[in-house]
Automatic annotation (TrEMBL):
Matches recorded under PANTHER family: HYBRID SIGNAL TRANSDUCTION HISTIDINE KINASE C, TWO-COMPONENT HISTIDINE KINASE
Location of the Histidine kinase domain: 150-370
UniProt-listed InterPro entries: HATPase_C_sf (IPR036890), HATPase_dom (IPR003594), His_kinase_dom (IPR005467), HisK_dim/P_dom (IPR003661), HisK_dim/P_sf (IPR036097), KaiB_domain (IPR011649), Sig_transdc_His_kin-like_C (IPR004358), Thioredoxin-like_sf (IPR036249)
Name this polypeptide is given: histidine kinase
Catalytic activity: ATP + protein L-histidine = ADP + protein N-phospho-L-histidine
Gene3D superfamilies: 1.10.287.130, Glutaredoxin, Histidine kinase-like ATPase, C-terminal domain
EC assignment: 2.7.13.3
Signal sequence interval, chain numbering: none
SUPFAM superfamilies, per the entry: ATPase domain of HSP90 chaperone/DNA topoisomerase II/histidine kinase (SSF55874), Homodimeric domain of signal transducing histidine kinase (SSF47384), Thioredoxin-like (SSF52833)
An example Gene Ontology molecular-function term: phosphorelay sensor kinase activity
Pfam family, one: HisKA
Organism for this UniProt entry: Pseudanabaena frigida
């Protein structure tokens, strides 16, 4: 940036914006010579190379170079293009007239004007930085809210199951069979382990949708995992309490899958838990596993509850999204966001449709074959 002034009390302030093209130097000389010839008008010229100071071009709203901006007297005026010198000659008489009208109102020196605009630009950058920091802090607060909400939602099932097992042992006294006691204690231990795994997974989910989700995948027989989840003592009690019927179609000749067993177990528990919650008393829940292609297995869990409107089916997998009908109760959306992250981490897909042939919802997800 360089300046040429024809008077210490400059009144016509001009900014010439150029770039690194060779012809720019010739243009600068032509403009300077023109101003020196027209010395009957007090003027000051400042040359700005936009290649080195693009922020000034942005501040002064210059969209192309070369460009000549009349900064003062007001109103501002910009001329630009290859015939810039010719345009300057055409504007000159009008600009001189504007100067004569402002003889007794000298503006600040041009360098001060440019410095002022530079400071404005710096302040704008600082405001942007602070706004970004504010957004990050707000996201951290939302992160804590997500963690608390997901802990309350996803830990309730295993904790309730542990209490149910212990209460059954305590209330039965000497009447309970030792084998049943051993089974209930094993169930309680498994649920405690599930709760511990959930805490780890929920903290992973709370890191945000873009955070890397770690899995420990290995070769697993999915049919065995499904039967293990369905034989869960707490799940059986939930079905029994609402007199719901479970229909399952799990082939025995399924190929092994390549998954993180505990995380997929959590997906099954979550989806089955939602199914029992939304299926009315005496209703039916169906679990079906199909070998769709040579690369994928599809698992579907359907219920005959109220269903999910078509326009909301993608949103139920968003973090903390709740259907309006569920504002006063636990609803789809808290655990489903974690389910989607788990399935996505396995290179699978999860979605929801209408239940086939009846009212309700059908959640489906795919997993890679080993």
């Amino acid at each position: 940036m360089r300046t040429i002034s024809t008077s210490p009390e400059s009144t016509l302030q001009l900014l010439l914006f150029i770039d690194d093209r060779p012809k720019a130097k010739d243009l600068v000389k032509d403009v300077e010579n023109f101003l020196q010839r027209e010395n009957d008008c007090l003027s000051e010229l400042q040359v700005i190379n936009v290649a080195g100071q693009p922020q000034l071009a942005e501040l002064f709203k210059i969209v192309m170079s070369p460009a000549l901006l009349k900064l003062s007297p007001l109103p501002r005026q910009t001329i630009a293009g290859k015939n810039l010198l010719k345009q300057l000659e055409n504007c000159w008489e009008n600009w001189k007239y504007q100067v004569t009208k402002n003889t007794f109102n000298h503006p600040p020196e041009l360098a001060q004007n440019v410095e002022y605009m530079t400071q404005v630009g710096r302040l704008a950058d600082e405001v942007f930085r602070l706004t970004q920091e504010k957004s990050e802090i707000e996201e951290q607060i939302r992160f804590k809210d997500r963690v608390l909400a997901m802990l309350a939602h996803d830990l309730r099932n295993p904790l309730t199951a542990i209490l149910l097992a212990l209460d059954t042992i305590e209330m039965s006294g000497d009447k309970i069979d030792p084998q049943m006691v051993a089974r209930l204690l094993k169930h309680a231990r498994n649920k405690a382990r599930d709760a511990d795994n959930m805490i780890t997974d929920i903290l992973e989910a709370g890191r945000g949708a873009n955070a890397e989700f770690r899995t420990q995948r290995q070769k697993i027989q999915l049919d065995q995992l499904c039967h293990s989840v369905l034989s869960d003592f707490y799940f059986s009690k939930c079905l029994e309490g609402k007199m719901q019927k479970l229909i399952k179609d799990i082939p025995t000749d399924l190929p092994p899958v390549y998954i993180d067993q505990e995380k997929i177990r959590q997906v099954l528990i979550n989806l089955l838990g939602n199914a029992t919650k939304y299926t009315p008393e005496g209703g039916k829940i169906e679990l079906t596993v199909m070998h769709r292609t040579s690369q994928k297995i599809e698992v579907s869990i359907s219920d005959n509850g109220p269903g999910i409107p078509a326009e909301m089916r993608n949103r139920v997998f968003e973090e903390r999204y709740r259907l309006e009908r569920d504002d006063e109760a636990e609803g789809y959306g808290i655990g489903l966001s974690l389910c989607r992250r788990i399935i996505t981490a396995h290179y699978g897909h999860i979605w929801v449709d209408d239940a086939i042939g009846k009212k309700g919802s059908c959640f489906r997800f795919t997993l890679p074959v080993y």
